[in-house]
């Protein structure tokens, strides 16, 4: 889909983009709050409307014919969620194959169900890629979407994740399913 068409469709759906794409060649963008599959559609349209591709991780079970080739075409990466190390290897492999930028978007919640302790795979990947993390969001209450502010990671994944959850709490975002969104 063309960036112009994606921007038009996003606007027709009532969404307002805030800011542009991440300026770095490589980065990790968190997508919060993630409570339904529609979050993917809105995020996809947003990033495409900016003329960029956001890569996302999807469990490998979805990569069957004819869906698999379509998912790969739009930037999806198949991952084996049973092994954290293989997830990182899959992402690094895809990054090495990419020509140009590699913006990886993922949900630290790791699922669309309510989760109090967010996963820290984003941190491992950002450190392995030596790239920044952006606190992206889609707010269903205001219908605003953004790559969000840049967050520099430290050597302490748990402390960083706790701080990120606190920042998201302060943002007062509304999820598609508010009862499934927990920041702490």
- The DSSP helix count reads 6
H/E series: HEEHEHEHEHEEEH
The count of β-strands is 8
Compute the CA-based radius of gyration.
15 Å
Helix content range: 25-40%
Mean of all residue-level pLDDT scores: 89
Reported for the largest beta sheet, the result is: 8 strands, mixed
Identify low-pLDDT runs.
none
Describe this structure in words.
Helix 4 (84-97) runs parallel beside helix 5. The chain is globular. Strands 1, 2, 3, 4, 5, 6, 7 and 8 form an 8-stranded mixed beta sheet that branches. The longest helix is centred in the C-terminal third of the chain and has 15 residues, at 157-171. The protein is α/β, with parallel strands linked by helices and 184 residues long. The protein is built from 6 helices and 8 strands; from the N terminus they run H-E-E-H-E-H-E-H-E-H-E-E-E-H. A hairpin with a 4-residue loop joins strand 6 (133-139) and strand 7 (144-146).
């Amino acid at each position: 889909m063309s960036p112009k068409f994606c921007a038009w469709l996003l606007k027709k759906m009532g969404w307002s983009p805030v800011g542009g794409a991440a300026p770095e060649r490589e980065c990790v963008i968190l997508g919060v709050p993630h409570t339904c599959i529609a979050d993917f559609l809105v995020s996809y349209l947003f990033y495409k409307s900016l003329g960029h591709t956001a890569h996302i991780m999807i469990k490998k079970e979805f990569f069957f014919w004819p869906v698999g080739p379509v998912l790969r075409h739009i930037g999806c990466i198949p991952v084996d969620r049973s092994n954290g190390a293989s997830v990182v290897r899959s992402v690094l492999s895809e990054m090495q194959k990419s020509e140009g930028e590699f913006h990886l978007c993922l949900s630290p919640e790791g699922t669309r169900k309510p989760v109090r302790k967010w996963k820290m795979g984003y941190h491992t990947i950002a450190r392995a890629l030596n790239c920044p993390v952006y606190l992206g969001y889609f707010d269903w209450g205001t219908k605003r979407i953004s790559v969000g502010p840049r967050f520099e990671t430290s050597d302490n994944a748990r402390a960083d994740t706790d701080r990120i959850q606190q920042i998201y709490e302060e943002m007062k975002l509304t999820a598609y399913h508010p009862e499934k969104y927990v920041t702490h």
